[in-house]
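User: Last request for today: this protein with S-adenosylmethionine, please.
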Amino acid sequence: MVRFSWPSSPRAVSRTSAARQFGARGVCVDIDPARIAESRENARQANVIDRIRFLNEDLLLTDLGDATVVTLFLSPELNLAVRPKLQRELKRGSRIVSHWHHMGDWKPQETLRVRGDGRESPIYLWTVRDR
Ligand SMILES: C[S@@+](CC[C@H](N)C(=O)[O-])C[C@H]1O[C@@H](n2cnc3c(N)ncnc32)[C@H](O)[C@@H]1O
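Assistant: Here's the final one, the structure of the complex with S-adenosylmethionine:
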């Protein structure tokens, strides 16, 4: 069973799809309660509310040990701040997908450009190889 975590997003269609189509369970983390409320509503509308746990807290304090896929849409600074935690806590083979922002000199194994909301943006993929 795939587990995934992410900061909440009103545009999180792909994330709710993962729960709906593949039976994934998710943990949604955001420090802003308004984002958590939006995500809860998105999940309710997508009929996956029972598959997602919502945490209104600082991502840097969240236990990531159970996640096998982590999706991020943060900021350049926060990506760099969370990078050592991801490398420390995630199991080997876990995947990280980041929208917009890379992780400094941690080279992504794949970069895609996706179109949404009338603009194009990068998506980066890493797989945790070693601790
Ligand atoms: C670039 S916005 C993404 C907005 C939203 N995900 C969307 O799709 O519109 C970054 C998000 O990260 C959240 N955030 C910032 N610092 C955080 C932290 N330390 N822990 C958890 N979430 C944080 C913000 O509240 C905001 O919702």
